[in-house]
């Protein structure tokens, strides 16, 4: 169990800290539709337990930092403890353009105040743009119900 919590912490650190110093805040209207569509598609895949599909379609950064089994374990832990997503409300959206960061190129970190079946938490999606497409590079849920 501690290993799963450790993975959550690692994902959070690896995929959100690099954006803290060079980011622009975006409002609801400032999040591009393609970014919103990617978050929605990943959310649908999570809800349908299509964890292998998420892993296959994720950015290289995701696959480099986790195995398919680790990736699945993260999603299963969230589903097991919190249940399905009931609603998401945009909390922050941070856009970055990096040339030498851990996530080079164009990226977004989008955080939601999320209501799950058995609790609430902050759900964060890190997306990178590769070849004109937005890909999942990180996923993190922070909730006291995960302890």
Bulk shape: globular
> Given the structure, what is the number of helices?
5
Class by alpha and beta content:
alpha+beta
The termini sit apart by 9 Å
- How large, in whole angstroms, is the Cα Rg? 14 Å
Strand composition percent: 25-35%
Strand order of the largest sheet: 1-2-3-4-5
The averaged pLDDT comes out at: 85
DSSP strand count: 5
Low-confidence stretches: 5-28
| Helix coverage percent | 25-40%
| Helix/strand order | HEHHHHEEEE
> Largest sheet, described in full?
5 strands, antiparallel
Your description of this structure?
The protein has 147 residues and is of the alpha+beta class. Helices cover 39% and strands 35% of the residues. Strands 1-2-3-4-5 form a five-stranded antiparallel β-sheet, sandwiched between helices. The protein is globular and about 40 Å long.
Keywords:
single chain, 147 residues, alpha+beta, 39% helix
Summarize the structure.
By secondary structure, the protein is α+β, with helices and mostly antiparallel strands. It is built from 5 helices and 5 strands.
């Amino acid at each position: 169990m501690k290993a799963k919590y450790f993975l959550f912490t690692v994902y959070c650190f690896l995929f959100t800290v690099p954006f803290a110093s060079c980011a622009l805040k975006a409002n609801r209207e400032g999040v591009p539709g393609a970014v919103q569509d990617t978050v929605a598609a990943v959310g649908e895949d999570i809800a349908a337990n299509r964890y292998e599909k998420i892993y296959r379609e994720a950015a290289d950064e995701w696959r480099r930092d986790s195995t398919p089994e680790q990736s699945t374990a993260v999603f299963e832990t969230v589903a097991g403890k919190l249940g399905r997503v009931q609603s998401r409300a945009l909390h922050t959206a941070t856009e970055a353009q990096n040339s030498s960061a851990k996530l080079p190129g164009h990226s977004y970190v989008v955080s939601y105040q999320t209501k799950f079946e058995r609790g609430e938490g902050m759900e964060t999606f890190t997306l990178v743009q590769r070849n004109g497409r937005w890909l999942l590079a990180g996923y993190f849920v922070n909730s006291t119900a995960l302890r």
